[in-house]
Amino acid sequence: MYAQVIVDVPTMQTNRPYTYRIPTPILEILRRGMRVVVPFGKGNRFVQGFVVDIKEDAQQTEQLKEIVQVVEMNPVLNDELLKLASWLAEYNFAFQISVLQTMLPNVMRAKYGKVLRLLEPDQLRDWPQIALLFSDRGEIPFDSDNVDSELLPQLLKLQKKHVIEIGYLVKNRAKVKMVNVLKPIKDVSFYQKQLQQLRPSAVKQARLLTFLLQAPQKFVPVKDVINRHHLDYAIIKQVENKGWLVQSQIESYRIPKLQTPVQPSQPLPLNDEQKQAYTAIIANVVQPKTQTFLLEGVTGSGKTEVYLQSIAQALAVGKTALMLVPEITLTPQMVRRVKSRFGDDVAVMHSGLSDGERYDEWRRVQRGEVHVVVGARSAIFAPLTNIGLIIIDEEHETSYKQDDNPRYHARDVAQWRVDYYGATLLLGSATPSLESRARAQKGVYQLLSLTKRATQGVLPTTEIVDMRESIKFNNDDVLSPQLLDSMQEKLDRQEQIVLMLNRRGYANFIICRDCGYTPRCVNCDVALTVHKDVGRLICHYCGYNELIPHQCKICGSKRIRQFGTGTQKVVEHLKEVLPQARVLRMDVDTTRKKGAVDKLLTSFGNHEADILLGTQMIAKGLDFPDVTLVGILNADTTLTLPDFRASERTFQLLTQVSGRAGRAQKPGHVILQTFNPEHYAIQLAKDQDYEAFYHQEMALRHAWHYTPYYFTIQIKFAHEQVDKAAKFAFETTNWLKGIVEKDTIMLGPAPSTISRIKNKYYYRVVIKYRFDQHLMQALTELMHKGQQLQRQGVTIMIDREPVNFI
Ligand code: ADP
Ligand code: ZN
Ligand code: ZN
Fold first, then answer.
1. Crossing angle between the packed helical segments 596-605 and 330-342, to the nearest 10 degrees
2. What angle do CA 751, 752, 754 make, to 5 degrees?
3. Binding site feature residues
4. Which of 151, 359, 502, 517 has its CA at 20 to 30 Å from residue 313's CA atom?
5. Distance of alpha carbon 304 from its chain centroid, rounded?
6. What is the number of structural domains in the chain?
7. How much distance in Å is there from the Cα of 270 to the middle of ligand 1?
8. Is the C-beta atom of 305 inside 6 A of ligand 1?
9. Are residues 86 and 145 in the same domain?
10. What number does the ligand 1 atom closest to the CA of 270 have?
11. Ligand 1 contacts CB of residue 340 (under 6 A)
12. Ligand 1 centroid to 322 CA: how many Å?
């Protein structure tokens, strides 16, 4: 028998599986979807691989190598996920191995190590240092921790003489956590008798016997017994030695915890609009029929309640459900809401978990022990079976698209999975992506709308402040008099305020007021960003950093200072103008620690602060009843992004953040500070008028041949020499021009917006097309050619429907 194996060789990626012999002892246990260790290439190299097929015959059987090891006794990928991987690799011009690895928890990625093996111990007599290194061991790890570099010449000589050899091994990092457990083995009367005979001084034994007397006949964690009954390990051991109890070890899951316990919640009675949406969704969930719904609901319209009740319905008919939320901020609040409804039947998957937690949550899902999964982008690969419903909340969010290989969009994966299971896909948003809204227009998706807030409340009122005028008035480019007055009023009434400083597309750099000099990264074509907390200028692309200068490097002027405003600066400013206000800051710096977001939000929810000041990470999902004012300090920075979606992003962000105000009984107010008060994205965000924005933006996209009228592909070329990057970009573009359809449009090649990153130069070409099978074939070919080009130092990146045009 032969196995088809996709191998993990980063420098030689290919979508072709390799054929291996299956040795007899492995034959009985080997199945598709298992991880194996196989030899690859010359030398003693071993790599990890995934078995994608098992066959009776192989085309060519001579010289085939054998599988050496099976990593675990159960397949880690089922048939559905193997098929999905193969489709996704093709669709996104990616290699199957990178897709397979993305689907699984990090710890399942192989880690490779080297070992030194001693072949002829007797020969080491004349090599005392090496003999000491081995110290009677036949094999030792070969890395800089263990082996001094001074010994390398000697080792090489010995390798030539075949006294030692260098071996490669595959380490399995997926570790199961085990805990000690114990259980009584005698009957109640036995323990009673022993208890009566105890010396009065043997208090601990008495406590343990009392416990054993009442304990259930099953294993319980030793640690719990020790803590709860004030015992110690010695006493347990003593009693075990007498044969009165048994100890063992069992697996224990590392389940991610929230900062405070979750209170159970009951379904709310739905209002008419919610009921209509819910009825349509569940009618589909109970059938084995694929359908995608777009739930367009204004902020606070109760979309989440519709999600939760739809999930309950999927569970009621014996199916499973998967819910995606955008990364980080939404996760704790949403996880709380889902857990409050479904308790332990929920697994959580996102990048904020530890490796162990991720691995264990994944196993709980894979073993069918939970039926609901909530998580960020990569949770779309959760190994649920029998899926009835997939929900993507805030479906317009760019975090659903992965920026690295494989460059997949979670929405596409979700669509594939619901097609496979005959399931329901539910996309929800107050501001759907134009692509999704257009599909609903064409009837590809079914549109459901929620036009009113769920809590009887009304949408907040919005006031636009023209900062060009305001600055003249009080010479303050951070807080307008209108915003200050409004904040004071809310503080007096003990209501809460959310302030957003939009950092996207926003330059927070240093500039010399005399000569205009700005410190830039030495490796990349970008200005360095100010980080006051560490006193350094940092490059966000490569991490290069230097001290914040006091003097201009060019003209020596001391008038070199920060341009633009960071969250820290706003906090300082607030202290001056509103000294009584308690401010919480939420940005990348204050949320780096695990659980920090949950802690911050819990504290704001408990009224431990009056103002929550944050970057765009506060825009979504927050649901605090006492927030009655939202201030947007700089509404327009996203407008200047070099991206055809700049208006869409601005509209989405402003609508989302405005939606944080007045979510309960008290009415909300929004103040929107801008230098572009007449821009349509800003005007329509003021009215929270998504439909008007959709129509206006669609007209522009039509005129400019952009998504959703055309599909988009971006190809990037990177090289250390600028002329080489350009050469490959032009050659490839010319080649493609001879292949593509007539109505396919190619823009470029041209240097990327950031033309140099980490000392590599970037060129890009953007392709807009409608139907172009030739283009798809050519791109697949290009991807495979990329492997050879890599050896000439060129990196080619093919990105289908890119969301990032940097
Ligand atoms: P969205 O997800 O659309 O922004 P949420 O689901 O967060 O809205 O709902 C906003 C608020 O309305 C929440 O506090 C929620 O508990 C409440 N809510 C939702 N549905 C109902 C309902 N049917 N009756 C009463 N309150 C509701
Ligand atoms: Zn200067
Ligand atoms: Zn850099």
1. 80
2. 115
3. 512, 515, 521, 524, 539, 542, 552, 555
4. 359
5. 21
6. 7
7. 9
8. yes
9. no
10. 23
11. no
12. 20
129 and 101 in a single domain? The answer is no
- Please, what is the angle between helix 203-214 and helix 233-241, to 10°? 70
Structural domain contains residue 272: no
> How far apart are the C-alpha atoms of 215 and 228, rounded to whole Å?
13
Residue range 615-659, pLDDT digits in tens: 888 877 677 888 889 999 888 777 766 678 888 988 998 888 888
Asked whether residue 330 carries a pLDDT value surpassing 80, the answer given is no
C-beta of 455 in contact with ligand 1 (< 6 A): yes
Do strands 536-538 and 545-547 pair parallel, antiparallel, or not at all (unpaired)? Answer: antiparallel
Q: Are 560 and 550 in contact (CB under 8 A)?
A: yes
Q: Residue 294 domain-assigned?
A: yes
What is the predicted pLDDT for the residue at 186?
A: 87
Cα distance between residue 322 and residue 345, in whole Å: 12
At 59, the amino acid letter reads Q
Q: What is the mean pLDDT of residues 244-271?
A: 84
Q: Do the Cβ atoms of 246 and 182 come closer than 8 Å? A: yes
Cα–Cα distance for residue pair 98/404, rounded to 1 Å:
10
Cα angle for residues 151, 156, 158 (degrees, 5° grid): 95
CA distance 389 to 382: 13
pLDDT digits (tens, 9 = 90+) for 17-66: 999 999 988 888 899 999 999 988 876 688 889 999 999 887 776 788 99
Q: How far apart are CA 676 and CA 665, in angstroms?
A: 32
Can you tell me the mean pLDDT for 132-153? Answer: 81
Amino acid code (one letter) for 386:
N
Of ligand 1's listed atoms, the one at least distance from the Cα of 299 is 4
pLDDT of 145 reads 75
**Amino acid letter for position 741:** E
Helix (H) or strand (E) holding 362: helix 355-366
Decide whether any atom of ligand 1 lies within 6 Å of the 383 Cβ. no
- Structural domain span for residue 317: 279-381+394-400+410-440
User: Is residue 453 included in any domain, yes or no?
Assistant: no
Nearest to 379 by CA among 404, 399, 356, 403: 399
90, 218: one domain:
no
Q: What is the pLDDT of residues 370-391, one digit of tens each?
A: 999 999 999 999 999 999 999 9
Contact 384, 318 (CB under 8 A): no
pTM score, two decimals? Answer: 0.85
Q: Does the structure show a pLDDT above 70 at 485?
A: yes
The residues that bridge with 189 in the sheet, in sequence order, are none
270 CB under 6 A from ligand 1?
Answer: yes
Residue 197 host element (H or E): helix 188-197
Amino acid letter, residue 539: C
Question: What is the 3-state secondary structure of 253-306?
Answer: CCCCCCCCCCCCCCCCCCCHHHHHHHHHHHHHHCCCCCEEEEEEECCCCCHHHH
Domain match, 612 and 734 both = no
The token pair that represents 411 in the structure block: 């929405």
